[in-house]
Write a structure and sequence with these properties.
CATH class: Alpha Beta
Strand content: 5-15%
Order of helices and strands: HHHEHEHHEHEHEHEHEHEEEHEHH
CATH topology: TIM Barrel
Mean pLDDT: 90
Low-confidence stretches: 1-17, 20-29
Largest sheet: 6 strands, mixed
Number of helices: 14
Structural class: alpha/beta
Number of strands: 11
Strand order of the largest sheet: 5-4-6-7-8-11
Radius of gyration: 19 Å
Shape: globular
Number of domains: 1
Length: about 350
């Protein structure tokens, strides 16, 4: 059942608890997410933000440390900035992995407290739960995704450089290199293909890494893959092949490939390389015409993403501002499609009505 605290939050300004929220709550104790009921809540929230004159955002890729988030404050920021729904993936912190735990069920708490704001998303494949023991993590991923009816898997880090903040702190544990065409990648792609459940990958854009990814996409044509971070290239000299035309070719060959749009602003510098690592931008801070043309041509392949993480939970406003800066420079109707309609179509297999 919903707690009294949750009921008061959901029913604020209402005489009774909304029917969709009550149905979602009734299904939660069975151990499975009530996606049909949750869907109704997401739709109402998106419509309300649209009616208020703001472009809703459906964030396909963010993560959090369940032990280090002030949910009430975070949700207030979501409301203020027009973030309608987040696919919010728990990352198991190292202190718990050391105790033998590799999976957090905190998503149930998100859904109980704020069922119209969060989309049930599996745990992120990140250090140390994923990097220390891929087989154990995949055991947990498969078991809990199926047992609880998760409709989306988290972000799996195959090739990942240190983030800009981690580079500043010299946190080298995030420099991850797991072959995407190895045993762990094969198992993940096969599971996704069998179940139809999308998953996300962090996979740096470098010439040597592209053939293995293409081979996996070809081997598992029904696996729905969300490749995170459009045109985020941290070492330009290592990437000569990735262009809008290259990505256009991938789209033609692999209908189940999607790209999320979490990347740095026009002038962000990746300190280890000394380069601007968001290659979408012109020197003047606009979207390069060739990228804008591709997105306008195939907008449903691009998904709005914030990439909020455990070390920046208090930066939602900044990250939303960066995403809106990008969205505002897209032509219509691509702007609305990327902001929330593409995620809706991917996750619910239908066009949204607002």
């Amino acid at each position: 059942m919903l707690t009294r605290r949750c009921v008061l939050r959901l029913a604020a300004g209402c005489a009774v608890l909304p029917a969709w929220a009550a149905r979602a709550a009734e299904e939660a104790p069975t151990g499975r997410f009530g996606i049909a009921a949750l869907k109704e809540g997401y739709l109402k929230r998106i419509a309300a933000i649209r009616a208020a004159g703001k472009l809703p955002i459906f964030d396909i890729e963010s993560s959090y440390d369940p032990g280090k988030i002030d949910l009430e404050d975070f949700v207030r920021e979501m409301d203020r900035t027009g973030v309608a729904v987040m696919a919010f993936s728990p990352d198991m912190p190292g202190r718990l992995v050391k105790k033998g735990e590799t999976w957090s069920h905190h998503v149930f708490e998100l859904i109980r407290l704020y069922p119209d704001r969060f989309y049930p998303t599996g745990n992120g494949g990140v250090h140390p739960a994923w990097t220390k023991n891929q087989e154990r993590f995949l055991d947990d991923n498969e078991r809990y995704i199926l047992a609880h009816g998760y409709p989306l898997m988290g972000e799996f880090e195959f090739r990942h450089y240190m983030s800009p903040r981690q580079a500043e702190r010299n946190e080298t544990h995030r420099d991850v290199d797991i072959p995407i065409d190895g045993a762990a990648g094969e198992r993940l792609f096969a599971f996704a293909e069998t179940t139809g459940i999308p998953f996300q990958i962090h996979y740096e854009i470098e010439d040597r890494l592209l053939p293995p990814l293409e081979a996996m996409l070809a081997r598992h044509p029904k696996a729905k893959v969300i490749w995170c971070h459009l045109a985020q290239i941290r070492y330009k000299e290592r990437s000569t092949l990735y262009t809008p035309d290259y990505l256009r070719g991938l789209f033609a060959r692999f209908p189940n490939l999607y790209i999320d749009t979490a990347f740095g602003g026009p002038y962000g510098i990746y300190k280890p390389s000394g380069q601007r690592h968001a290659r979408v931008w012109t020197d003047g801070g606009d979207i390069r015409p060739e990228w804008s043309a591709l997105i306008a041509e195939q907008p449903y392949r691009f998904l709005a993403a914030l990439d909020i993480g455990g070390d920046r939970m208090d930066r939602l406003d900044d990250w939303v501002r960066n995403l809106r800066y990008f969205l505002d420079r897209l032509p219509e109707p691509a702007r609305r499609i990327v902001a929330y309609r593409a995620a809706w179509k991917l996750l619910f297999n239908e066009e949204i009505g607002v």
